[in-house]
């Protein structure tokens, strides 16, 4: 039942009860706890008192003392000295070594109680004792069926005494040999046998009661073993769950550590990216502020330039007005493009703010922002070039205005009127500007419409250029007509200069008089009378001359009226095209008409002069000559002015057309850049949306991971608590010092021999398996294990040894040989290894003891 021996080593190595016969057998030659070793009661281990009498204890147990006293009385009556005092004296154990001092310790023999030497001189010897190898010759143990450990070999001895029945038998044999006829001795012997039988019956009853109690205890132990098996299974399942939880915790800790590292890396990247975005936002803000300042300055400059250009257009001709309108349109388009640029920059800023709020990964967006910043810098460079071009335009306009300062005096009234018109136009422009600010949301559609308008404007410019070419050809024709008229006037002046009346140069006189002063024709008589002493004359030739002059004058008037009509028709045709400058042209035409009327009045005066020439031909001729000269000078001056003005207008118009083409080309480039910027902004917006979606997904994943980490942290804390509970309090751990305080007979050598510290190297499963196997093998509940273990130790050290010693003496007395307990134990252990059922072992010792009991009982009957 208590065969626990080396099973502990097997349990520790395999974690379960051994199952094969090929495993290690008990080595009885090397066991420190051999069953035949009496070291358990020796002085070295338990330090028994010298007054303790082993045989007296056995005599009190079996009633031997009474039988010895009776035998001693019979010997005293007979006068026989049998020498039993030496053999059965209480000091037999201590006296024997002193009788033979030279004998070795391993050769000591113990004589059983009641035994004596045979008549031939031979002595009864117990089983020889092997010499110890531990350095203590007297450290011997009692019998033990199963060793608790595997130390070095110890010496063994046979039982110290034989059974009391052997002693009684010898004594009876001696007494019967000495005094056969002693009736008193027989009666005493009968009485003694009766007492012995009563004692035996009483002991049998006690043994049966003990067996019954043991059976009950065995049933309880089996029940407890079953419950312990269930608990062991539950503990094994819990152990597996604990191991799986530990593995999960380790994996989750690794995942959590990796997730934390990734989160830290992402946070660092986010910090870097947010810093970059903030720097880019600051740069964008500064760039936008500078762009706003430049835009406002440019707007002011553009407004001033447009005002001056409008003034210039008012002061110039109709084709300049059209070009100024085109420039105004191009400027409005530039403003709209600037507004769209501002809108796009605002969108970029909004995107930057949203990205800053989200604080997400913007590595891809940084490159896009850098590209947009480069595009903005390019646009700023383009703006600078536009500013330079505008400055050049301004300088050119200033030069044109400086050239036309001489003509501004003639158009003061028009200037005032145009100032009012400019104010109204400024109000209209401001209203349009506000409307454009309201319509910034529709900038994309407006850009497309602007492209269409630009194409239309290009077509309109081409048409206008064709019309201007036509007008230039018409103006060339008019100039040719004016030159022809001037040539006719020159021929008329030459003709008048060569006129002579009666050998008098009347024509030269008239021209001189006309050059000097413009007086009435009545003064010609005095001039002629003063210079040529002519009062007046009139001939038929004079009449013919006057008629010719009248015809020429009429032809001139007709030509003038025809020119006037042509100019009016041309002005009417160009009025629809050249717009606002029609009034100025009309005024010019009115002035020409007034000039022509004045000239016609002068011609009328000339007619009156011609009428008066009959009375004063010389004076009339002089005045006529002067008037002709004046007309020639005026016509020449007017032709020169018209030629100069037309040339200047032509050159300025060509320059403005060229600049308009450049501006349109620049606008086209700006539109292309705006389209590229819009595509880039759309890609940036799309990338930002993708980033936001990926960020939201990552945030959800991070939240899930955080929840998992929190759950794992709770599980980890619970598992740590369970682990601490399983570990227990390290202060309560048994060490050599604490064990020595509890077990006073423990020393360091025994502590190391028992390998107690190796228990600390076992894991919880091995420890649980050891405890469970102890519970299963001892069939003791766990609640009673702490109480049962000292009882088991007492049983193994004292009770089992004493009982086996008694049984061995009795067996030796009956069969003249000791019990082969080693063979019996090996047989029982083999049965256990085969079946692993401690309750179904058929121990050979039981059969041996049954036979011994039957033999003793049969002998006691007789």
Decide which structural class fits the backbone: mainly alpha
Largest sheet: none
Q: Please report the number of helical segments.
A: 22
Strand proportion: under 5%
Low-confidence stretches: 1-54, 82-163
From the alpha-carbon coordinates, what is the Rg to the nearest angstrom?
74 Å
Shape: rod-shaped
Quaternary structure classification? single chain
N-to-C order of helices and strands: HHHHHHHHHHHHHHHHHHHHHH
Indicate the mean pLDDT.
68
User: Could you tell me how far the N terminus lies from the C terminus, measured between alpha carbons in angstroms?
Assistant: 36 Å
Q: What's the total count of β strands?
A: 0
Estimate percent helicity.
over 70%
Main features:
862 residues, mainly alpha, disordered N terminus
Structural overview:
With 862 residues, the protein is mainly α. It is 76% helix and 0% strand. It is built from 22 helices and no strands. The longest helix has 146 residues, at 582-727. Residues 1-54 and 82-163 have low confidence and may be disordered.
């Amino acid at each position: 039942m208590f065969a626990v021996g080396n099973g502990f080593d097997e349990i520790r190595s395999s974690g379960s009860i051994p199952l094969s016969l090929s495993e290690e057998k008990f080595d009885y030659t090397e066991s420190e706890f051999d069953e035949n070793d009496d070291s358990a009661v020796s002085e070295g281990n338990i330090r028994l008192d010298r007054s303790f009498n082993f045989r007296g204890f056995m005599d009190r147990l079996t009633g031997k003392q009474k039988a010895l006293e009776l035998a001693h009385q019979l010997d005293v009556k007979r006068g026989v000295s049998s020498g039993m005092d030496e053999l059965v004296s209480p000091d037999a154990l201590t006296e024997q070594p002193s009788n033979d001092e030279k004998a070795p310790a391993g050769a000591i023999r113990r004589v059983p109680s009641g035994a004596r030497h045979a008549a031939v001189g031979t002595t009864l010897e117990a089983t020889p004792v092997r010499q110890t190898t531990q350095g203590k010759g007297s450290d011997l143990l009692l019998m033990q069926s199963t060793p608790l450990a595997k130390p070095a070999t110890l010496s063994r001895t046979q039982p110290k005494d034989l059974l009391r029945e052997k002693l009684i038998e010898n004594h009876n044999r001696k007494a019967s040999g000495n005094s056969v006829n002693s009736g008193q001795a027989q009666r005493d012997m009968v009485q003694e046998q009766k007492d012995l039988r009563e004692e035996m019956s009483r002991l049998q009853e006690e043994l049966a009661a003990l067996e019954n109690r043991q059976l009950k205890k065995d049933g309880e132990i089996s029940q407890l073993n079953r419950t312990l098996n269930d608990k062991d299974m539950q503990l094994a399942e819990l152990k597996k769950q604990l191991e799986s939880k530990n593995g999960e915790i380790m994996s989750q800790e690794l995942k959590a550590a990796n997730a934390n590292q990734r989160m830290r890396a992402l946070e660092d990247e986010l910090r870097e990216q947010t810093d970059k975005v903030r720097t880019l936002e600051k740069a964008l803000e500064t760039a936008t502020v500078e762009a706003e300042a430049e835009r406002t300055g440019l707007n002011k400059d553009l407004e001033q330039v447009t005002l001056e250009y409008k003034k210039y257009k008012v002061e110039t001709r109709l084709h300049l007005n059209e070009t100024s309108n085109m420039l105004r349109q191009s400027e409005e388009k530039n403003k709209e493009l600037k507004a769209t640029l501002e809108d796009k920059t605002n969108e970029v800023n909004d995107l930057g703010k949203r990205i800053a709020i989200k604080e997400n990964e913007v590595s891809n967006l940084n490159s896009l922002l850098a590209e947009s910043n480069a595009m903005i810098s390019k646009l700023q460079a383009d703006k600078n070039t536009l500013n330079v071009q505008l400055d050049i335009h301004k300088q050119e306009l200033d030069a044109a205005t400086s050239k036309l300062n001489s003509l501004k005096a003639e158009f003061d009234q028009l200037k005032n009127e145009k100032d009012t018109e400019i104010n109204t136009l400024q109000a209209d422009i401001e209203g349009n500007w506000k409307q454009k600010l309201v319509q910034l949301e529709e900038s994309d559609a407006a850009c497309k419409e602007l492209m269409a308008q630009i194409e239309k404007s290009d077509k309109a410019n081409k048409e206008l250029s064709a019309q201007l070419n036509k007008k230039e050809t018409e103006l060339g024709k008019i100039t040719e007509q004016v030159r022809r008229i001037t040539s006719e006037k020159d021929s008329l002046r030459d003709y008048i200069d060569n006129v002579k009346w009666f050998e008098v140069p009347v024509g030269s006189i008239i021209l001189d008089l006309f050059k000097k002063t413009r007086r009435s024709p009545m003064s010609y008589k005095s001039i002629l009378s003063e210079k040529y002493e002519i009062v007046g004359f009139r001939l038929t030739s004079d009449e013919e001359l006057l008629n010719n002059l009248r015809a020429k004058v009429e032809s001139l008037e007709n030509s003038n009226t025809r020119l006037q009509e042509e100019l009016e028709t041309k002005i009417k045709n160009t009025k629809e095209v050249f717009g606002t400058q029609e009034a100025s042209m009309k005024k010019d035409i009115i002035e020409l008409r007034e000039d022509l009327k004045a000239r016609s009045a002068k011609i009328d005066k000339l007619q009156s002069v011609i009428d008066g020439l009959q009375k004063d031909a010389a004076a009339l001729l002089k005045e006529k000559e002067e008037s002709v000269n004046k007309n020639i000078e005026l016509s020449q001056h007017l032709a020169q002015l018209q030629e100069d003005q037309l040339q200047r207008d032509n050159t300025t118009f060509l320059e403005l057309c060229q600049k308009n083409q450049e501006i349109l080309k620049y606008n086209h480039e700006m539109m292309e850049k705006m389209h590229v910027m819009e595509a880039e902004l759309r890609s940036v917006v799309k990338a930002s949306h993708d980033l936001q979606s990926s960020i939201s997904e990552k945030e959800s994943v991070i939240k899930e991971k955080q929840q998992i980490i929190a759950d794992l942290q709770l599980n980890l804390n619970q598992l740590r608590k369970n682990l601490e509970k399983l570990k227990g309090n390290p202060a309560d751990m048994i060490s050599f010092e604490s064990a020595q305080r509890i077990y006073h007979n423990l020393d360091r050598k025994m502590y190391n021999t028992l390998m107690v510290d190796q228990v600390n190297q076992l894991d919880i499963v091995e420890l649980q398996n050891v405890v469970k196997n102890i519970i299963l093998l001892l069939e003791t509940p766990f609640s009673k294990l702490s109480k049962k273990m000292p009882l088991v130790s007492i049983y193994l050290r004292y009770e089992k040894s004493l009982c086996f010693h008694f049984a061995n003496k009795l067996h030796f007395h009956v069969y003249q040989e000791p019990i082969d307990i080693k063979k019996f134990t090996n047989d029982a252990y083999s049965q256990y290894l085969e079946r692993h059922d401690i309750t179904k072992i058929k121990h050979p010792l039981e059969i041996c003891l049954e036979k011994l009991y039957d033999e003793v009982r049969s002998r006691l009957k007789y």
